[in-house]
Amino acid sequence: MTGGLPAHDGPAGRGQADGTPEPARGTPSEPVCETPPRDPGVQPERTWLAWRRTTLTYAVSVGLAARVAVAEHSATAVAAAALGAVAWAALLLTAQRRRRGLAVRQPAPMDAVQVIGTLASVLVLIVVGGMLL
Amino acid sequence: MRDRISGTLRLWFSPQRLREEGTTPDYRFSLANERTFLAWIRTSLALVAGGIAVDQFLTGLRWGARTTVAIVLLAGAALCAVRAVNHWVRCERAMRRGEDLPASRFPVLLATGTAAAAVLVIAVVVLGLAGR
């Protein structure tokens, strides 16, 4: 999964521990992401970016729904687009909450709010798609 | 069987119960599992977008054909999203127990379904079948 990276954890401390050999890190002059580096695979950051991609993908569908609402002017389409926008905001909040969970040294797996919140917002979007038919 | 289903359902809504068994795996494996979950969620979202787009942009089709394709895509999206949660829970549990990760037939089903839908849309668009 991590492409043959060493199995040990990242440096225990921040700051002066930056000198430990870490093949996957960038040059020292690069700005460090706001979460402290933990392992050479920057797993928490990659996971956060996966959340970001997911919220962006969601926004595409909400945008499509908004386009329909503007083009058709029907009450159903406007309600569907509004519902989609609200669900998108909920997904953003879920992702933001997860971001805080990822910002610790050894992040715990997702909790129920994140799993069910994500599932629920996707199901709401499917309802939105059904309303637009 | 019913116990297993209800047990898995309970895990969906309270994944913290997973901690009751096995040992905590390296957190990086959990994060990889989480990214896989999110990738499946994005697959589902792409199917939703496809469903909306088919309904909006394939206006050359009869209403029935268009709506059928859209509904199939939306139903596939729902299946994909629910299955994403289920697969995440099962992988997380397998990692805690030190078991093999669950094998699944779902990817091949999804690939077959997507290919069939694509062929259908191509036939409809290019050959003008089911036109108005």
UniProtKB/TrEMBL annotation, chain B:
The keyword Transmembrane applies. Transmembrane segments: none annotated. Its main location: membrane. GO terms for cellular component: plasma membrane. InterPro entries: DUF202, IM_YidH-like. This is DUF202 domain-containing protein. It holds the Pfam family DUF202. It is a multi-pass membrane protein. It is found in: Cell membrane. Keywords: Cell membrane, Membrane, Transmembrane, Transmembrane helix. It comes from the Bacteria.
